[in-house]
Recover the amino acids of this structure.
């Protein structure tokens, strides 16, 4: 498979005031592969995604995109690089149709007037490239779509701009069985089209169904990033819950790691 | 019913609509709770028939022409309110804002001897300043629009009193301003404008279909497009035919009165302009987006605060236009200009026309259709001799009815998944 990662994060630190949320986090996203990002609640998955997408700025560490070190200060920077995030709430406007949603904030214009035919054509091309054949009309209001179709529109919106990396935040969390299968198929197709895909998920079945690599976060640290075929279901669960599994993952915590950062409360200890 | 399948250029297969399937889809949307202006149009027809049967003067050309001048102020304010309502906000001060702007114009014209071409722009600019102030307080300071505009409602009432030095009536003698809401266009000009409007609409529609078909995109069926053009032609031409008839009761003594009221093309110009802005420009798209899902709009990089300020600017600007027309119609400005029922009639017009109070749904045309309903009620009940009190009660009830339709259709839409 591809040897050089498309997007590589190294040594990312992020604090909110006194609370350090990310410690020395690394993540590599390869083109044509799905990288699952897993971790328990509060492990720092969302924070990491927001750092990549420019909503938060990082305190330390490097972001390398396509071999060049880049600085992402705003969502616009991320979009300019070709990094798109599909958030869990999808961020679609119910009162607008599919085409209008896909071009929201980046409408094509001719002079002063919206160039609807061009937008409709581009939207159609994008949906076709994702093999979406389930919408009745591109001018259907998003309100009338099913959960899976909305997810599809949100993903199509993300890939419309020749994006290189697409980050999906729990795309299947609210979907039924059939729709989950459809969306996972779509996720796989994105990677097969050569994009780097990051899939955030709590669902181990989804992770094993589509991902090529798994990156596990544990309490703001990267526990491991491994090929999915090299690990078992239970190893991933151990990585998520305790940060290590056998010889994988973070080293056991040694008292010296704590650097005196804790108060000794053993009875009779130093005052 | 022959439904042939077609493909858009991209290859997503969609069903090519026929006239039958188009009507079927429309009926499906209505049943799903997306009523649009349908209740208002039906209401307009029913009310007109009731009043027409009860009082034959209701259908006289004179009364028909009166409807335009009577409803103009409310329609202009309602057009602006549509923008504010699209964002789910409200502007309760629009009525008195129109009074203040009308008073500014009247004072400049009468007390300072300005010309109409300087006084009217200053009045319109006053509207822009008022709107910017309101919008700034709502978007940047973060006060709910209900409170900001309720405070402004009281304040503008006071400003109007102060401007009129404690309640004097300022009369207007400028012939241009007086003509706006009191004079008619000549018969020839009336017909030329009506024919130009229909021809322009037809050309636009057909050019649009041609352009889309050339790119292999789905188009509305030709039958529906023709029906729209014919409907517009029938409505416009019959209205012009009625309005170009002699309306003067005794033309030899009081002079001939015929032609379309000048205010009608002014309404049409604003209707076309704002419809274009909402439907065909990036700005309009952003207004709908902010009204539909503010957070999604913000993430899409839309300057939400600026959009929010802008709708208040548009609303107060349109209130200024309404104030100028109202001053023209009344030949004067008094402390009650823009007060009393004006604001509620305007909100009622927008909501009755089909603009949602919950944001995200509405068109400028709603203001005109709803304004017509309000004008017909007000005018018809006046002809039947009901008191102002009864008229207020009935109009209030109809506003409540329209708001109920809005709320219930929204619930139904949520249940059927079309919204």
């Amino acid at each position: 498979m591809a040897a050089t990662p498309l997007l590589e994060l190294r040594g990312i630190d992020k604090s909110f005031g006194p609370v350090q949320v990310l410690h020395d986090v690394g993540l590599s996203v390869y083109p044509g592969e799905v990288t699952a990002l897993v971790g328990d609640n509060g492990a720092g998955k969302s924070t990491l995604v927001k750092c990549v997408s420019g909503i938060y700025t990082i305190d330390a560490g490097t972001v390398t995109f396509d071999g060049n070190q880049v600085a992402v200060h705003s969502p616009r920077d991320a979009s300019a690089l070709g990094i798109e995030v599909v958030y869990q709430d999808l961020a679609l406007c119910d009162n607008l149709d599919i085409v209008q949603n896909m071009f929201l904030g980046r409408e094509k214009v001719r002079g002063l007037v919206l160039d609807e035919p061009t937008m409709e054509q581009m939207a159609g091309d994008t949906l076709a490239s994702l093999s979406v054949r389930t919408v009745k009309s591109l001018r259907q209001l998003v309100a009338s779509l099913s959960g899976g179709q909305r997810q599809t529109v949100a993903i199509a919106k993300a890939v419309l701009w020749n994006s290189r990396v697409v980050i999906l935040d729990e795309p299947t969390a609210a979907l039924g069985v059939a729709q989950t299968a459809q969306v996972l198929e779509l996720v796989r197709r994105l990677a097969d089209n050569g994009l780097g895909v990051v899939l955030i998920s709590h669902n181990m079945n989804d992770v094993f169904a589509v991902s090529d690599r798994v990156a596990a976060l544990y309490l703001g640290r990267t526990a491991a990033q491994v090929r999915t075929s090299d690990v078992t279901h239970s190893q991933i669960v151990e990585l998520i819950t305790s940060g290590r599994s056998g010889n994988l993952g973070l080293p056991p915590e040694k008292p010296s790691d704590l650097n005196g950062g804790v108060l000794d409360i053993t009875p009779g200890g130093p005052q | 019913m022959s439904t042939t399948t077609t493909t858009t250029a991209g290859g997503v297969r969609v069903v090519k609509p026929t006239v039958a399937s188009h009507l079927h889809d429309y009926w499906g949307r209505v049943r799903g709770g997306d009523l649009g202006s349908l209740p208002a149009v039906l209401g307009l027809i029913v009310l007109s028939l009731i009043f027409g049967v009860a009082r034959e003067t209701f259908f006289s050309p004179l009364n028909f022409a009166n409807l335009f001048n009577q409803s103009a102020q409310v329609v202009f304010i309602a057009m602006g309110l549509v923008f504010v309502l699209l964002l789910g906000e409200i502007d309760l001060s629009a009525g008195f804002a129109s009074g203040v702007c009308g008073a500014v114009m009247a004072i400049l014209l009468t007390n300072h001897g300005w010309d109409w071409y300087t006084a009217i722009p200053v009045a319109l600019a006053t509207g822009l300043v008022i709107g910017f102030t309101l919008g700034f307080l709502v978007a940047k300071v973060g006060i709910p629009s209900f409170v900001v505009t309720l405070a402004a409602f009281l304040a503008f009432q006071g400003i109007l009193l102060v401007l009129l030095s404690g309640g004097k009536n300022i009369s207007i003698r400028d012939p241009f301003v007086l003509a706006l809401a009191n004079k008619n266009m000549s018969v020839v000009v009336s017909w030329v404008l009506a024919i130009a409007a229909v021809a322009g609409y037809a050309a636009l529609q057909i050019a649009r279909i041609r352009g889309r078909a050339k790119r292999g995109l789905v188009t509305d069926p030709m039958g529906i497009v023709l029906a729209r053009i014919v409907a517009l032609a029938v409505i416009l031409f019959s209205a012009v035919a009625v309005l170009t008839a002699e309306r003067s009761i005794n033309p030899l003594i009081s002079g001939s009165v015929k032609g379309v009221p000048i205010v009608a093309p002014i309404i049409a110009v604003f209707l076309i302009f704002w419809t274009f802005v909402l439907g065909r420009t990036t700005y309009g798209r952003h207004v709908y987006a902010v009204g539909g899902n503010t957070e999604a709009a913000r993430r899409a990089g839309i300057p939400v605060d600026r959009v929010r300020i802008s709708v208040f600017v548009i609303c107060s600007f349109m209130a200024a236009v309404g104030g100028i027309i109202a001053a023209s119609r009344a030949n004067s400005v008094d402390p009650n200009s823009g007060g009393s029922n004006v604001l509620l009639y305007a909100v009622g017009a927008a909501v009755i026309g089909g603009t949602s109070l919950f944001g995200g749904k509405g068109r400028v045309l709603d203001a005109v259709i709803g304004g017509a309903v309000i004008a017909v009620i007000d005018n018809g009940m006046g002809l039947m001799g009901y008191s102002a009190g009864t008229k207020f009660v009935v109009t209030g009830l109809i506003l409540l009815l329209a708001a109920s339709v809005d709320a219930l259709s929204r619930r139904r839409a949520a249940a059927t998944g079309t919204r």
